[in-house]
Amino acid sequence: MKKVLVVGGAGYVGSHMVKMLLQANMEVVVLDNLSTGHRDAVLGGEFVEGDTADAACLNRVFREHRFDGVIHFASSTQVGESVKKPGDYYRNNFCNTLNLLDAQIRHEVDVFIFSSTAAIFGNPIQVPIDETHPSRPINPYGRSKWMVEQALRDYDVAHGLRSACLRYFNAAGSDPEGELGERHEPESHLIPLVLRAASGRRENISIFGSDYKTRDGTCVRDYVHVVDLCQAHLLALKQLWKGSGSSVYNLGNGQGFTVQEVISTSEEVTGRKIPVVRTQRREGDADTLVAVSNKAERLLGWDPQFSDLGTIIEHAWLYEKKVAGLK
Ligand code: UFG
Question: Is the pTM of this model over 0.85?
Answer without folding.
Answer: yes
